Every structure is written in structure tokens, then in C-alpha cells.
Amino acid sequence: MQFQLTEEQLMIQQAARDFARQxxxxxxxxxxxxxxxxKEQVLQLADLGFMGMMVDPAYxxxxxDTVSYVLxxxxxxxxxxxxxxxxxxxxxxxxxxxQEFGTEQQKQQYLTPLARGKKDNDLYxxxxxxxxxxxxxxATSQRTTAEDKGDYYLLNGTKNWxxxxxxxxxxxxxxxxxxxxxxxxxxxxxxxxxxPGVVVAAKENKMGIRASDTHTVMFNxxxxxxxxxxxxxxxxxxxxxxxxxxxxxxxxxxALGIASxxxxxxxxxxxTRKAFGTEIMNHQIIAFKLADMAxxxxxxxxxxxxxxxxxxxxxxxxxxxxxxxxxxxxTAMWAxxxxxxxxxxxxxxxxxxxxxxxxxAKITQIYEGTSEVQRIVISRGILK
Length: 384
Hints:
Blueprint: H1 7-24, H2 28-34, H3 39-48, H4 66-77, H5 81-101, H6 104-116, E1 118-119, E2 122-123, E3 126-129, E4 145-148, E5 152-163, E6 170-176, E7 186-192, E8 198-203, E9 214-225, E10 229-230, H7 236-272, E11 274-275, E12 278-279, H8 284-312, H9 318-343, H10 354-363, H11 371-383
Parallel strand pairs: 3-6
Antiparallel strand pairs: 1-2, 4-5, 5-9, 6-7, 7-10, 8-9, 11-12
Helix pairs in contact: 1-4, 4-7, 5-6, 5-7, 7-8, 7-9, 7-10, 8-9, 9-10, 9-11
């Protein structure tokens, strides 16, 4: 068993840490308050090769492993979870899905600019569209329809809570073609945002990850060419589930970053803040809080790296990714709450960052599969 990172992985980790501290930390509070999409930061991530980290260089990617991706996600999420979730969706859901299941034409036309994060020197990222007003955890209940018209599909419906919804150039949309077949009648279609009938609707006013771009998107008689279907007819639901299994590693790493950021901010604060004549780190109640935080953060990190290692080595990572996500997300919620407590009154104000981490943490227990859904996946895996 090897716990040592490679030289390349350490370089990626350091580059992500430097980027987070130098490019994300300045202005992160203002972007959160104004719900301002971090376009400049995402473009810089593209320049670093972080928008298509695991994509083959033949298609514009960096060709890195999943472990490197987890390391980068953790470092960026320590500081700015809104920026990291944009990176996660593009990497884990959109680029992975296209590279793994797309045709050569789809890879050349869409994957290459998505992996680069740019097209014609402007931002070019993707969004993954599964959730609907009545299809959240029950993803089989798709009301969005893709009517087969011979050489194209006619797409109609509404998708909710879409990360990158207003900023993305390309959408991967799950839609029901044959309701009689249930989940086996669902297809995944590649849709361009500028096509007639695509309507980007309301932007969500969220509790956390407020700078990320979360929208409702509607489709009104959108003509989607047959060649934009991913996989065989009826493959859409399987595509979504296989893609989300890898996506959970990205969100687990985001949650890990929020938790480890909570620990780092709290440790720094405890070394300088004085109470009762000494730094608060010298009070056992604070020291023990930090010890518990460090232990849980390390456990979450090991689960994330284990899931990433399984994926990199071609092993089944469905259970390990669910374990990583449920544990890391619950650790993030707990650790960020403890961070606010350690900071006391200062923790409740925006200047010290930890109140934002606490707000950002909650969504990691919800999106890309709630904690309850992860426990279903894990229990089915161990009881089969």
C-alpha cells in the first residue's frame, strides 16, 4: 500500500494551492455577496489545464489522473467552492461523459473545446442536466421529452438547479423518448445553448456557493440532430448514473476542501486569538476541537483518494465514491460549524471566511446524490 504522492501530483497540488490563494482568495467575499460568476478565475483554470484534467491530450486535455484531480479540487475548495464546482461539473460530468461514451465526431466538436475551457479565446464550458421540478433524487421520473422525428429529436421540458446553467455553451440533457420503457427510454442529448428554443430562465438565489451559476433552463421545441445523441437509443439513464458515480468523487473532494479549509482557518485563528491570558490553542477544549477536525478531515481525504485510486486503476468505484461523498460532505458540514464556533463572534461575520464555508458545505450533502441516496448505494453494494 502506497501513501506517497508522485512528484507530478505534488506539483499539481502546489499549483492549485497557489492559484487558490493568489487568484481566488482576493475578492471571494465580494463575489459571494454579489452572486458574481468567477469568469476570470475559471479562465485561469483553463490556462492551467484544470478544466479538462483527465481528458486525453489528443482532445485538448491535460491527461492527468483522478488523484491529481482530487488534490486540485481540495486546494481550490478550501478557498472558493463556487469556482471549484464549475471546475468539477466540467471535468467530472461533462468531459468525462463525452470522453467515455461520445463518438469521435462529438469528441472533436465538443470535447476538445470543453477540455480546454475555451473556444475562440472565450470561456467554453458545459452543464449536466438531469434534475427537474419533479425529478431530483428520483431521476427516473423525467418529464423532459425528446420526440423522435427521424433525423432529429424535438426536445421539450424544464431542468432545474443547473450548475453553469447560464454560462455554459453546451448542455448534456437527459430526456424521455419512450415513456413505456421507463428508465430504458431515456436518452442523453448534446444541446448548444444558442439553439432556437433554449431559454435560460431564473438564476437561483442560493444559501451557499453563491458565485456559481445555477439556473433553471427550459427547452421549447428544440431540434437536436440525431448525431448529438450519446450512445445507443435508451442509453441516457445508464449514461447519467455512470457519469454521476465519477462526479461524486469531485464533489467529495470539494467537501474535503471545505472541511480542510475550515481546519486551516481555525488553526491559524487559534494560534493568534487570546482569551484568559493565552492563545486559545492552549485551552484544551479548543485543542481537542482541532484534533477531532484534523482526524475527520484526514479520514475523508483517505476515502476520496481511495475512490480516485479505484477509478484510475479500472476498479469498481461506485461504492467507494459514495462512501467518500457521504463522509466528506458530512465532515464538511460538521467541521465548518466547528470552525464558526472556534472563531466565536468573529466566525459569524464574513471577514473571517468560515461562515461562508459553513454555507457552502451544506450543498455537498445534496447535489450529485443526497447523503440518503449515497447510503442506498452503499447498502445495496454491501448487501447484494
